[in-house]
Amino acid sequence: MTASSTSALVRGPSTATERALAPDLARGFMLLLIALANTPWYLYGQASGMTSAHPIDGSVVDRIVQFVLITAVDARIYPLFAFLFGYGIVQLYRRQIEAGATEQAVRAILRRRHWWMIVFGAVHAALLWFGDIVGAYGLVGLIMVAIFLRRMDRTLIVWAAVLTGILTVITLLGLVALPFIPADPAFEQGGGFVDPAALSGEEDYLASVLLRLATWPLIAIGQGIIGLVVPTMILLAFWAARRQILEDPRAHARLLRRTAVIGVAVGVVGGLPNALTHVGVFELGPHQSWIFTLTQSVTGIFGGLGYVAVFTLLADRLQRAGAMSGPVVAIKAVGKRSLSNYLGQSVIFAPLLSAWGIGLGADLNSAGVAAIAVAGWTVLAAVTYLYERRGWRGPAEGLLRRLAYR
Fold first, then answer.
1. What pLDDT was estimated at residue 144?
2. Rounded mean pLDDT of the chain?
3. How many distinct helices (H) and strands (E) make up the chain?
4. How many domains does the chain have?
5. Is residue 243 in a domain?
6. Please, what sign has the CA dihedral across residues 39, 43, 49, 50?
7. Domain encompassing residue 128
8. Is the predicted pLDDT of residue 2 greater than 80, yes or no?
């Protein structure tokens, strides 16, 4: 088959009438939570914990903000994003196949899309944000599509269970070993794996670019592949998308309600040890508190699934009630343009908070940076609402689609 005949069988991206509300609504809310999760990494003017970017001190309000974010947001949002990313892969694949495209042509689209996501992520990391996840998901997407896209449902569930089981066993072994871990002063004084003071506190922009480029590949591979959470969520998303659970929530209401209750409960309970340790309720040395990042990670799988179910049920209720008001439309619009809004957050936060920019990260506390996160998301939502009213695509989505679909 020639290149021209292959491309002739490929249809364009989804139209507005083809999009389900639940994924876009979930992405829109998710971006607010991403802003809340990422902005603490810009605080470089005070000491942070070994296992997070949150400052170790602060007012009562600051401690409440830290507790809530660690419990309900940290390590819960990127699994949610991974699920929606995997779900979108199957939606794209099914839409193209139903339109008559060949398997080869659709896989070519997905490969181009994921390779370009890696490029987008590298540029994003170099210019603004070392913690970029776009490139990490592009990398995982290449692997998961090549190995699992056409596998049987049973294979997807078995592998998701295996990966979750590995994380669970590692977590349990860590918890058992926790009381016996000896103190290591050199480790406790060395800071965490990522030091906000070194990255966000760098005043020379070109030097900060080099620091981000040196850090991002490790985070992309570690969070995207080695951490196992993202591949697990994508496997579950492949299974769910084949059943169109987010498109038809009424037919799967019982599953969604159970997932919402169990997932959110496990996510919150799993985040409590880390949160209580950070605010000083549990007195542990930094070398021991690292163990609770494992509980944070494995329970993030359940928390992410729970949030997906909650947003899906909420979307169904809003649609049935006809409550598609301005705020709901704005959040949906943000979700439809999630890549542009995600990159837009860095355009706002990095120059505002980093030392090479205005440098507010040296003076803000947890509550202050959370307020900036909410304000930044709100500004982007207002701009995106105007894009929706005018029928414009997000600039990043438009570019990626042109590159992927040629």
1. 96
2. 88
3. 18, 0
4. 1
5. yes
6. positive
7. 19-405
8. no
Q: 14 lies in a domain?
A: no
Digit-coded pLDDT (tens) for 173-186: 888 887 777 765 55
For the cut 70, the answer to whether the pLDDT of residue 306 exceeds it is yes
**Cα-based torsion angle of the residue sequence 143, 149, 151, 155 in order, rounded to the nearest 10 degrees:** 60
Q: Is the dihedral of CA 332, 374, 399, 199 positive or negative?
A: negative
Q: How far apart are alpha carbons 248 and 272 in whole angstroms? A: 33
Model pLDDT, residue 5:
43
Between CA 94 and CA 242 the distance in angstroms is 9
Distance, in Å, from the CA atom of 399 to the CA atom of 401, rounded to the nearest integer, reads 5
CB 336 within 8 A of CB 388: yes
CA quadruple 246, 252, 257, 262: dihedral positive or negative? negative
pLDDT of 232 higher than 90: yes
Which amino acid type is present at position 402? Answer: R
CA–CA distance, 307 with 201 (Å, rounded to integer): 33
Token pair recorded at residue 274 = 């880390």
pTM: 0.89
Which tens digits make up the pLDDT trace of 74-104?
Answer: 989 989 999 999 999 999 999 999 999 999 9
**At residue 237, what is the residue type?**
A
Instruction: Give the C-alpha separation, 39 to 370, whole Å.
Output: 7
Phi, psi angles (nearest 5°) of residue 216: -60, -45
Task: Identify the helix (H) or strand (E) that includes residue 290.
Answer: none
Decide: helix, strand or coil at residue 204: coil
Q: What value does the CA radius of gyration of the chain take, rounded to a whole number of Å?
A: 21
Q: What percent of the chain is helix, strand and coil (3-state, nearest 5)?
A: 75, 0, 25
- DSSP code string of 85-122: HHHHHHHHHHHHHHTT--HHHHHHHHHHHHHHHHHHHH
CB 228 within 8 A of CB 166: yes
d(CA 109, CA 403): 9
6 inside domain: no
12 domain-assigned = no
Residue 336: what residue type?
Answer: K
pLDDT (tens digit, 9 = 90+) per residue, 27-80?
999 999 999 999 999 998 777 766 678 888 889 999 999 999 999 999 899 899
